[in-house]
Amino acid sequence: MSNDSFFVVIEGIDGAGKTSIARALSDILRQTLGENVLLTEEPHNASLMGAEIRSALRRERELSPLELAQAFALNRSNHLNTCIDPFLQGDKRIVICDRYLLSSLVYQSRDGITMEDVYQINRWARVPDLTILLQVSAHIAYQRMDERSKSARELFENDLPTRLKKYCDGVELLRGKGQRIIAVDGDGELPEVINDVLSAVQEGAPSWLRIQPPLLLG
Predict the structure, then answer these.
(1) Which of 19, 145, 160, 179 has the highest CB neighbour number within 10 Å of its CB?
(2) Global pTM?
(3) What total number of domains does the chain contain?
């Protein structure tokens, strides 16, 4: 881990609350670090293949499983080269990314493409300093998705129990390759979950990052 930067990834199945948690974490850290905090996401719309991936997820464009895996890898490469890596070159910088490689292992490993295959396609990708996995039940996840949108679900927003199992498999693979992943219970209300996420961030943070108790949500 660099003493000058901190790359945090928020992961979990659809409906886990990743986006809300990533935004809350960003807001809290910006109270002390200001513009030294960058919030981003994958797929990254502004990067190569971003529009094509979003179109495929909305079922508006058909890509084969291998094409989709390669599209995500290309999008990630451009995202890193133009956004994440340049930002982290500054002093005491933090990037919070909503989804990253773990999501690719889970969602792009299908129809004969293994998690190891997807990992190898992305083997050059920057390793996060910390990945936080929000663990939620399928029931809670479906409930949250129904509350936020009445439109048709995207390509991978079904069969959540299977996704939960695949996340466990993906975590095992990445931990076996030395990556640091901390699981946080995401079934509770937002203030409770963000407090647990802040504790996990503090546990894995570089020495210069200290989250003061007054910043914690009650």
Answers:
(1) 160
(2) 0.88
(3) 1
139 within domain boundaries: yes
pLDDT at site 199: 92
CA distance 52 to 42: 13
Peptide bond before 43: cis, by omega within 30 degrees of 0? Answer: yes
CATH number for the domain including 127? Answer: 3.40.50.300
User: What residues does 39 pair with on adjacent strands?
Assistant: 96
Work out the angle between the directed axes of helices 160-176 and 101-108 (0-180°, nearest 10): 130
In a domain, 73, yes or no: no
Q: Is the pLDDT of residue 153 over 70?
A: no
CA atoms within 13 A on the CB side of 205: 19
211 within domain boundaries = no
Q: pLDDT-based confidence at 10, cuts 50/70/90?
A: very high
C-alpha to C-alpha distance for 114 and 153, rounded to whole angstroms: 24
Tally helices (H) and strands (E) across the chain. 9, 5
Residue 87 belongs to a domain: no
Expressed as residue numbers, the domain containing 122 is 5-41+93-206
Among the listed residues 83, 76, 87, the one whose alpha carbon sits nearest the alpha carbon of residue 48: 76
Joined tokens for residue 74: 């290309």
